[in-house]
Amino acid sequence: MADPVQGSAIHRFEARYVAANRRPRRKRLPYNGRMGKVRRIVEAAGGILYRIVPDSAQTDAHRTDGDINDVTAPDAAELALTETTGTTDPTNPANPTNTDPAAAAATASTIAADIIDRIEVCIVHRPKYDDWSWPKGKLEVNESHRHAAVREIGEETGMSVALGPYLGEIEYPLAEEGSKTRHSKDRTVDMKHIEYWMATPIDDTDAEELIDALGPIHRADIGEIDDIVWVSVTEARKILTHSTDKDVLALFVDRLQEGAADAQNVIIVRHAKAESRKTWDGTDENRPITPRGAAAAYALNRELACYNPTRLATSPWMRCRETLHVFSWQTNRPMTHLDDLTEDAFAENPNRAWDCFRNEIDHALRHRETVAICMHRPVIGGIFDHLRELCAAKSLTKRLIAKTPYMPTGTAVALFVVSSPEGPRIIDIQKVSPRVY
After folding, report:
1. pLDDT at residue 110, as a whole number
2. How far from chain centre, in Å, is Cα 349?
């Protein structure tokens, strides 16, 4: 017999009331399947801070002194450059006397192995997890991974640094933060995503000049980092606590074998957004950047400071000079005008513009300093055509866009260049964009 309440008018009314007042279904968001909560990704950045020590300076594997003034990377790197290229003139790296490719390759391999043996890397100890790892940390609000890497390395090691070639990224569940093994394949839980760079110490003078552009860096609390050590690559494999940190070390060794310890940085900057040609009444060379362009140029300073460019070169036209002007003022580093990189000069003689840029590459390699060069859209397109021929891998050529506008206004690309028997070779290209907020 049917339940009299089940078919009653009261029951039907209640059913309609519940259906009419049921909450609409929410849009599905990312979640972890077990808990039903929104999946969270924590962004972080760090790096492998390293130095090259002469054979005579090698001591015990553990080095806790933290003194970087007694060993400098340039001496060892210049030695590697001389032996690899077969020339005894360090001021002429582009014209080696040893032209035998097989012999040059064998020599380069030997030198790479020798450099790795003389590399010391900096590892930090975190008392909270009682682990040894690379210096790293979470991104602050409106901060790029690049800037976070420089800031975190500085905070955790007490040393001012400049970034080098990019190493790669890792990701692991947040719950495995203190675990030795971080190779979980579960990607439905909260994750930590970290990007890593190579990094080298810079001297106190450069660090002081970069403060206004980079921003302040404060030493980490003793409860966060209570010890740092300098160790060889071999010892680092033994000391590092986590499997993911050892993965990053493998990427570092791969870079060293490419010659990254000898790489110099040449940064191409496209000037910030300028006033429209249609509305500007003055001459093209005096066309200034817009207020929005000025904001992008100011924000770009923070990213350029991560690489410590000590030579600033630019087209003498207004929009290029204004793009680098504030960085020049903040760092007290003068700008050098390159007349061959104006739009008119490029249109008249593109080869002369390339020769001018190539001289800047040679300057960076010869003087071992980072160079930043501000140029115009048409000039960048012509320079890119030549730079693709210098890329060590085809994958790098794709980062040098072949179509106009080649680069957005107010952005940069960092080229890491090494000397080789065939001339300069690009081993890494990094796109650099400002955070305007």
Report:
1. 64
2. 33
Q: Which helix (H) or strand (E) holds 200?
A: strand 191-201
Give the model's pLDDT for residue 177.
82
Supply 340's token pair: 């061959």
| Neighbouring residues of 337: CB distance < 8 A, sequence distance ≥ 6 | 313, 314, 315, 316, 321
Q: Which residues of the chain have pLDDT under 50?
A: 1-7, 10-11, 13-14, 17-18, 20, 23-29, 32-33, 35, 59-61, 64-99
Q: How many CB atoms lie within 10 A of CB 423?
A: 17
> DSSP assignment, residue 179?
-
Nearest to 198 by CA among 357, 433, 414: 414
Buried b (16+ CB within 10 A) or exposed e, 97-115: eeeeeeebeebbeebbeeb
Torsion sign over Cα 362, 367, 368, 372: negative
- Whose CA is closest to 133, among 47, 62, 256? 47
pLDDT at 394 (0 to 100)? 94
Q: Which two tokens stand for residue 357?
A: 């840029």
Q: What is the pLDDT of residue 187?
A: 67
Identify the DSSP state of 102: H
Q: Measured between alpha carbons, how far is 104 from 422 in angstroms, rounded to an integer? A: 10
Between the alpha carbon of residue 4 and those of residues 13, 17, 18, 19, 285, the distances in Å are: 15, 20, 20, 21, 91
Inter-helix orientation angle 101-117/73-85, to 10°: 160
Residue 327, H or E segment: helix 318-331
DSSP string, 205-233: HHHHHHHHHH----PPPTTT--EEEEEEH
Q: What are phi and psi of 272, to 5 degrees?
A: -70, 170
- Residue 412 has φ and ψ, to the nearest 5°, of -145, 165
Work out the mean pLDDT of the chain and round it to a whole number. Answer: 85
Q: What is the pTM of this model?
A: 0.82
pLDDT for residue 115: 86
Rg (C-alpha) for the chain, rounded Å, is 27
